[in-house]
Specification:
Layout (H helix, E strand, L loop, with lengths): L8 H10 L3 E6 L4 E4 L1 H7 L3 H4 L4 H4 L9 H8 L3 E9 L5 E13 L2 E11 L1 H23 L19 H12 L7 E4 L6 H10 L8 E5 L5 H9 L15 H4 L4 E5 L6 H13 L1 E2 L8 E2 L3 E6 L3 H6 L5 H7 L2 E4 L10 H16 L5 E2 L1 H9 L5 H15 L6 E2 L6 H19 L7 H19 L4 H8 L3 H11 L1 H14 L4
Parallel strand pairs: 6-11, 6-12, 7-8, 8-11, 13-14
Antiparallel strand pairs: 1-2, 1-5, 3-4, 4-5, 9-10
Helix pairs in contact: 14-16, 15-17, 17-18, 18-19, 19-20
Amino acid sequence: MNHSLSHWSPQFEWILQMINVGVHIVNRSGQTVFYNEMMAQIDGLERDLVLGKNIFHLFPSLTDESSTLHLALTHGKRSSESIQTYVNMKGKRITAINSTLPLYEGSEIIGAVEIAKDVTKIMDMYDEIVDLRRHLIETNRRKKSSAGTATYCFHDLIGSDPTFRQAVSLAKKATRTQSPVMVCGPTGTGKELIAQSIHNASTRRDYPFIALNCAAVPKDLMEGLLFGTNRGAFTGAVDRPGLFEQADEGTLFLDELNSLDIALQAKLLRVLQEKKIRRVGGGFEQEINVRVIAAMNISTKEALSSGIIRSDLFYRLNVVTVMMPSLIERKSDIPELAEHFIRYFNEMFGMDVKGISAPAVQNLMQYPWPGNVRELEHALEYAFNIIDGGEDMIMEQHLPAYVMQMDKEAASFTSKADRSASQDIDLPKMLEELEREAIITMLDKCQGNVSKTAEALGIRRQALQYKLDKYMIQRVYVQKSAKELSGDET
């Protein structure tokens, strides 16, 4: 059997064609010798036109100094995940994140390879968002109106539960100072509502409120988005203020701070301590006056023990900590929240739903609400979409099926417990049965997606994977899905 690399060359080429990143290989003269389909899509060129062509012919906007492939060929320079914006031979502007390596034969450079990820659409989108936000702020300032985008105030926060009211009370006290605030709680508990309320009740209310979800921005673009860029910072970079500059005198809300890259956390800490920012590629620092409110959707203990967040940054932001309770911890607020959402959707849809029936409320009270208040809102919106025109009350049948299913399972569990009242009860086993059924229900709801199921259940993916193996749930789910696809209901 032939084990030489040359024997596997066709397989290697097939793999490079199939992977979902662009691959561009040039020889020592800078001529293209390999160019996969993904790279062709990124660059907007046909492979047949590219093969054999020099990099400067293909991308005339590049120079000896700006072409990472040329630098790899001539100086052996490696680059890792550098942002490049360039124009191809057809005049199309592309932004990509490139990693480039020289290729050696012994000590001699014989070529170079570039691996690219297309971020053109993402970059264009963020450019538009940043520009629109800046124009909005400037327009509002000229009109001497509120430049902020915060719409919620403390009177919009619904609930009478003592734990919830305690969190709101602490947030109100935080409005009297300029100290950073950390808001912690599961997804869907209203962390941004708290942040907006703090802003609108503070002396910064007439200045910008800017929110950024740290999990939604690629780490390669985050630094420029936060701190701004100067022309020449990277190929295609332009002079643009970052969110700190745009939020000057106002509030910057950093949601899901635990998703922020560790290296950027160090730069954020420096900004918080010195109250100065330096644009990417900039030669000087400028003072900023911004209050930072941060939020995390995991516990502070987990964030610190796992190293997800730097301890020095955490303690700098953790001057005031507002802990938002999950909806299951404030179940007594469910009827009040339901009535609030009914009024809200009546106004939104132009309907006149009078209220919700007692059995339907009971269903809502039985469900564990892993998505918290946001999930409750979506459940009520679902009811408004399916209620008939002549009906004016939300009934059990108008609620999502998964809410009804949980109520049936709770009733079944209660029935089992009642039957066992006169016998010895194996409580751990009963709890395991309930946990298993809850996981299966949520796995069905998330269509078998383990990551989404873990997030909905409020546990780590690794913990859910352990439980799936423990209860052999994935096997059950796969069998069930196969039956549904084949139309077998038995």
